[in-house]
């Protein structure tokens, strides 16, 4: 290997390291580094001093963020961190640290974040002298998860008053312990997290003194702290409080909202998280007027009430929602109908409503991990809140406008309208088990603000409408709703929608209806994105999207489309088409030209996804195949397409491209072969058709004669509309004139003496009628046709005609009942019989005539019995 090649290899390695997201580094290459000056030596068991020594002695690394988590460290000595002086963030969480030697952090005068959570430090033990060696530059300190290191009977919060720059503090929450007065000195402190989700928290009671020394706090997180009671003035002194998280305290329940909201009147509260404060498996609960009363006097802008098994809101309670509220989360509840739904307009300035995952089933295994679902509320409904007085409620309702007040619980429900917050922009009810059809629904006042509506993942099986008007709605998602029907006027009042998601429904059959389709999408002239994937679509009428002039993206993937039938003349913005997982093998030239012209006019390259369709390199589709290869850069995931050659063997994308380029030459060589094959096939088909006609000549003659009689002559008589066919004769006797004596001397006397009515051509045919017509009518008006088969019979063309017509009558006109009876008058050689007659004789029973005395008696009995069936 020469010097030039070695140089190239080194260059490539250096470039790959510089451009990769992460690479091996640190002692023995056990750590991982990235280009953002971060080094991760977690779970490497490397000594701290060795890592810091490498950092300070190397010009390669400029580390400002160091992760040392999960290494099993038990203590930190003064010299361990020498060399890590330039660190901005140090993560030591998840170790087994019991002590930190004084002065260990003395040289880290740039450190802004220190994480020593999930260790066994005795920082909460009041018998231990608290260490004041944390760097003064600290802005974020994580001390949570160290409670297990305290061994004394009493605990207290550590003195951190020397950390003048501290802004964010994570600590364990101590039961019945107030935050000490020293915390008033940390004037930059804005966020305290006592959450039990990432540490230990057992603050069962919050009194008026618990957080009295935190007036500077803006964010207070007490998620999952086992809180049972909160005094009415608990947050009164937190005058700067903006965010309060009390979620996942399952012993609180809704009645505690009265005390919480009372003290929040004196704060700058913006967000309250009160989710999951009710047992998952308890009885459903109701949000009452007394719970919301003092909220009227707060500055709350966002509230979270998710996962509380909330079913109802007390009538008129929504009147007390503060006018500052803009965002509401009520996910994972169990809402049912109530008058409160008619008072949604009282939430005047609400902009976002998130009500997803209603009526969700939860894992029963969680039951043992939560408080009993039979918890009884210990507080009464009585409240001294002044805003609950009827006169005040009525005045607030009038002042808000569009806010209904129900006097003395008298509720009037109008089926055609409901009130909505006038500033509402976003509504979500995803996967909420709603099983309804969407009826005609008019909303007052006119919805001029709603822009985003998502009702996906429900069972809204029929969309009747119209609904709205939604004058500014841009995004509508009704996917995964098992819908089979869309009303012709459903979209009439949402004409401005731009993104319409209708995937994963059952709209295929309805959209294929030529009579209905024209009114469904015609109002949606502003739609830019339309998703109809997974709708069992096999056919779409040509003009189904003809009014969607602005349509840019059309998704018809995962359907059963075999042929593109949509007229694209008016789709002058169409650029992105998803047709994956269909049964297409070509696209028409009109669609291809439209995509090209739109690209040229709009200056945006079109994209086409044809994955999981099948394409064969054959002459019939060569024009489309050449086009697809030419625009392969516009074919998304082109290498994943399914390609075959002319022998149905699978091809790679590259091989397919080569085969398509050779198609012109191959197709020319096959032209003569195709011509000769076509001629050969035509001759073969002519022979086959001729043979079929010859083989079924009698069937055709019978059907033609029957049709002629039915349409141009006369119709067969019937007894009545509900009675069986009436036969004029019991039997039509077909015989040769040479056998007339046998007919006159024996057949007629023997049968007519038994009151059988016979038809004979000499006696009963209508004079002047066509012989063929007389024969066919005699057969059709007789229950049986008796053929006297003899050598002379085979010589008569009219006798053979009678036999074949009777045979056809048995097969087609008497529902399979055998109306043909053959009497073998004399021994007839089989070689003299036609193929049809020989097949019949071999397949059916016939009666053989004999002149022997005993045999003749049996013959007449068999004949009479056969005619009597």
Quick tags:
869 residues, alpha/beta, Leucine-rich repeat, LRR (right-handed beta-alpha superhelix), Rossmann fold, 23-stranded mixed beta sheet, five-stranded parallel beta sheet, 20 helices, elongated
Provide an overview of this structure.
The chain has 869 residues and is α/β, with parallel strands linked by helices. Among the domains are: 19-149, Leucine-rich repeat, LRR (right-handed beta-alpha superhelix) (Alpha-Beta Horseshoe), CATH 3.80.10.10; 425-609, Leucine-rich repeat, LRR (right-handed beta-alpha superhelix), CATH 3.80.10; 695-868, 3-Layer(aba) Sandwich (Rossmann fold), CATH 3.40.50.10140. 24% of the residues lie in helices and 16% in strands. The protein contains 20 helices and 43 strands. The strands form eight sheets. The protein has a 23-stranded mixed beta sheet, with no helix packed on it. A five-stranded parallel beta sheet has the order 40-39-41-42-43, with helices on both faces. The longest helix is centred in the last third of the chain and has 25 residues, at 671-695. It is elongated, with a radius of gyration of 46 Å. Residues 6-19 and 711-724 have low confidence and may be disordered.
């Amino acid at each position: 290997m020469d010097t030039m090649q070695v140089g190239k290899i080194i260059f490539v390695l250096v470039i790959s390291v510089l451009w990769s997201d992460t690479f091996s580094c640190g002692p023995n290459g056990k750590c991982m580094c990235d280009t953002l000056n971060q080094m991760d030596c977690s779970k490497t068991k490397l000594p701290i001093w060795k890592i810091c020594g490498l950092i300070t002695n190397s010009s390669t690394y400029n580390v400002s963020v160091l992760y040392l988590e999960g290494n099993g460290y038990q203590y930190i000595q003064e010299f361990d961190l020498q060399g890590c002086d330039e660190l901005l963030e140090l993560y030591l969480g998840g170790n087994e640290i019991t002590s930190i030697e004084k002065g260990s952090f003395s040289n880290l005068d740039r450190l802004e974040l220190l994480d020593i959570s999930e260790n066994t430090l005795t920082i909460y033990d009041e018998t231990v002298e608290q260490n004041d060696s944390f760097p003064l530059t600290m802005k974020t300190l994580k001390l949570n998860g160290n409670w297990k290191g305290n061994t004394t009977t009493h605990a207290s919060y550590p003195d951190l008053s020397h950390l003048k720059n501290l802004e964010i503090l994570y600590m364990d929450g101590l039961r019945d312990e107030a935050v000490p007065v020293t915390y008033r000195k940390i004037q930059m402190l804005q966020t305290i997290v006592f959450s039990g989700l990432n540490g230990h928290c057992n603050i069962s009671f919050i009194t008026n003194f618990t957080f009295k020394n935190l007036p500077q706090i803006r964010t207070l997180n007490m998620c999952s702290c086992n809180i049972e009671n909160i005094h009415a003035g608990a947050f009164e002194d937190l005058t700067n409080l903006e965010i309060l998280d009390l979620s996942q305290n399952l012993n609180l329940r809704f009645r505690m909202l009265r005390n919480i909201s009372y003290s929040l009147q004196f704060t700058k509260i913006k967000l309250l998280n009160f989710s999951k404060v009710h047992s998952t498996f308890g009885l459903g609960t109701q949000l009452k007027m007394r719970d919301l009363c003092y909220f009227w006097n707060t500055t709350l802008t966002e509230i979270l009430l998710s996962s509380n098994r909330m079913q109802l809101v007390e009538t008129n309670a929504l009147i007390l929602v503060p006018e500052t509220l803009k965002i509401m989360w009520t996910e994972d509840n169990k809402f049912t109908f109530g008058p409160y739904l008619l008072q949604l307009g009282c939430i005047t300035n609400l902009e976002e409503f998130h009500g997803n995952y209603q009526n969700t089933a939860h894992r029963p295994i969680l039951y043992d991990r939560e408080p009993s679902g039979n918890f009884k509320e210990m507080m009464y409904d009585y409240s001294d809140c002044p805003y609950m007085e009827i006169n005040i409620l009525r005045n607030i309702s009038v002042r808000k406008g569009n806010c209904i007040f129900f006097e003395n619980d008298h509720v009037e429900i109008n089926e055609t309208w409901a009130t909505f917050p006038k500033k509402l922009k976003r509504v979500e009810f995803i996967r909420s088990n709603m099983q309804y059809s969407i009826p005609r629904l008019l909303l007052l006042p006119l919805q001029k603000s709603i822009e985003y509506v998502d009702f996906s993942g429900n069972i809204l099986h029929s969309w009747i409408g119209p609904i709205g008007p939604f004058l500014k709605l841009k995004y509508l998602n009704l996917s995964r709703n098992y819908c089979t029907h869309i009303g012709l006027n459903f979209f009439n009042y949402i004409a401005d929608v731009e993104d319409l998601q209708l995937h994963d429904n059952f709209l295929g059959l309805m959209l294929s209806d030529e009579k209905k389709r024209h009114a469904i999408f015609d109002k949606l002239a502003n739609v830019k994105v339309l998703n109809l994937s997974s709708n069992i679509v096999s056919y779409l009428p040509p003009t189904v999207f003809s009014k969607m002039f602005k349509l840019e993206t059309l998704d018809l993937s995962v359907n059963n489309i075999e042929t593109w039938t949509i007229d694209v003349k008016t789709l002058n913005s169409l650029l992105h088409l998803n047709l994956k997982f269909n049964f297409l093998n070509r696209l028409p030239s009109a669609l291809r030209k439209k995509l090209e012209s739109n690209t040229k006019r709009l200056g945006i390259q079109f994209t086409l996804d044809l994955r999981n369709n099948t394409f064969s390199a054959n002459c019939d589709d060569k024009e489309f195949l050449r086009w697809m290869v030419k625009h392969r850069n516009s074919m998304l995931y082109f290498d994943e397409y399914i390609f075959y050659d002319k022998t149905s063997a699978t091809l790679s994308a590259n091989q397919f491209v080569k085969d398509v380029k050779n198609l012109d030459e191959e197709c020319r060589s096959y032209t003569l072969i195709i011509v000769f094959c076509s001629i050969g096939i035509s001759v073969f088909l002519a022979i086959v058709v001729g043979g079929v006609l010859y083989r079924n000549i009698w069937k055709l003659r019978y059907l033609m004669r029957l049709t002629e009689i039915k349409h141009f002559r006369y119709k067969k008589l019937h007894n009545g509309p509900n009675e069986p066919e009436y036969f004029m004769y019991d039997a039509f006797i077909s015989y040769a004139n040479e056998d007339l004596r046998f007919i006159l001397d024996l057949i007629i006397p023997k049968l007519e003496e038994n009151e059988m009515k016979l038809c004979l051509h000499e006696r009963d045919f209508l004079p002047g009628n066509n012989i063929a017509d007389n024969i066919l009518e005699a057969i059709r008006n007789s229950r049986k046709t008796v053929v006297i088969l003899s050598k002379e019979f085979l010589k008569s063309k009219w006798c053979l005609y009678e036999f074949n017509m009777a045979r056809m009558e048995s097969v087609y006109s008497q529902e399979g009942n055998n109306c043909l009876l053959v009497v073998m008058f004399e021994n007839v050689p089989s070689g003299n019989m036609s193929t049809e007659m020989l097949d019949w004789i071999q397949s059916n029973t016939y009666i053989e005539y004999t002149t022997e005395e005993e045999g003749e008696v049996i013959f007449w009995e068999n004949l009479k019995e056969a005619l009597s069936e």
